[in-house]
Design goal:
By secondary structure, this protein is an all-alpha fold. The chain has a domain at about 10-220. The protein has twelve helices and two strands; from the N terminus they run αααααβααααβααα. Helix 3 runs antiparallel to helix 9 (about 185-210) and helix 11 (about 240-265) runs antiparallel to helix 12.
């Protein structure tokens, strides 16, 4: 029983952290730059098929089959996703937010249709199989994915703490003011979009490599919705929240499915999927009702010369100027 639970926990955490890496990329795009990317599933698919072409063994009737090491496939997935993002980002990022959402959603649908019909390249509806696992041991794979998620988290935290990160937030809040200060909003948006897409593509490669199979049905629009839910639940604008949201939403999805399977009578099992969606929706709504900014809210930095955010309350600064005044501090 313990061994079975440990095996399932390893499988669950590996996939949840892979989604967490995608959530980190989406958080850079939306939480820090304000880019509404509705094409997450498209970049996921590009990453998954890239690693399949590079690492899967040769199969009759299929192109690719390089049989290369997994890390080459993961690197290739990130590079290809970044290149595609660069190609579509130059013209698309000049559009308003609503048009950007429409174009990226259309991009994701187009990628899914290409994966379904380009049989020689993707295997069509049957997909591509026999993708080699990174390691023979599932715990070793989990350790690798956890290390990559940690590396991505640390790297992004350092980036957004730099002047580049502050410029991204300035573009998100007021593009005109950022431009007046000498920033290039178009270049900053493109850089954020490309880096975020690379992380999403890497996440797709990790998931495909771990499962050992990739098919077009894995990249339906519901995948984009799921990653967005993870980000909103975790807390947009906070990378810790993005990882937390990925784990929590994955746990809600998996846990509700197991609970309904155990609780529902056999005659109702066929309706279990619909009940699961309703239960998850209610759970997320309740969570956001009590935590409207997510599990880990964005850290708001406020000048001491401005009034504090609502509900923060004034606090005395350490080492003040001795006049007894209270200064606001940034909210959590």
């Amino acid at each position: 029983m313990i061994a079975h639970f440990a095996s399932y926990a390893t499988f669950f955490l590996t996939l949840a952290l892979a989604d967490g890496i995608a959530c980190l990329g989406l958080n850079l795009q939306w939480g820090w730059t304000g880019l509404f990317n509705a094409g997450v599933a498209g970049f996921y698919a590009i990453g998954a098929y890239a690693t399949a072409l590079l690492t899967a063994p040769a199969q009759p009737g299929l192109l690719g089959g390089g049989g290369l090491p997994f890390w080459v496939g993961w690197l290739g997935a990130a590079v290809l996703s970044a290149a595609v993002a660069l190609a579509i980002g130059r013209p698309v990022l000049r559009l308003r937010a609503d048009f950007l959402a429409i174009v990226t959603f259309g991009f994701a649908v187009s990628v899914q249709l290409v994966a379904l019909n380009a049989t020689a390249l993707t295997g069509g509806a049957f997909g591509r199989s026999f993708l080699p696992h990174p390691f023979a041991s599932a715990p070793a794979t989990l350790a690798l994915v956890a290390g990559l998620a940690l590396l991505a988290w640390v790297g992004l935290e350092r980036l957004v703490a730099s002047p580049w990160g502050r410029a991204l937030r300035a573009v998100r809040e007021d593009e005109g003011a950022a431009a007046a200060l000498g920033k290039n909003p178009a270049a900053l948006r493109l850089q954020s979009f490309v880096l975020g897409a690379a992380l999403i593509g890497l996440a797709g490669a990790i998931r495909a490599q771990f499962i050992g199979f990739v098919a077009p049905e894995d990249f339906l629009p519901v995948l984009t919705f799921r990653i967005w839910v993870m980000l909103i639940v975790g807390g947009a604008g906070n990378f810790t929240g993005a990882l937390a949201g990925a784990v929590v939403v994955s746990a809600l999805w998996s846990g509700s499915g197991a609970a309904l399977t155990a609780l529902l009578p056999p005659a109702w099992q066929v309706r279990g999927a619909a009940v699961q969606v309703v239960a998850i929706g209610v759970g997320i709504a309740l969570l956001l009702l009590f935590r409207p900014r997510g599990l880990v809210a964005e850290r708001v930095r406020v000048s001491r010369h401005l009034p504090p955010p609502p509900g923060s309350g004034p606090r005395r600064e350490r080492g003040g100027d001795g006049d007894g005044r209270r200064h606001p501090r940034s909210g959590g």
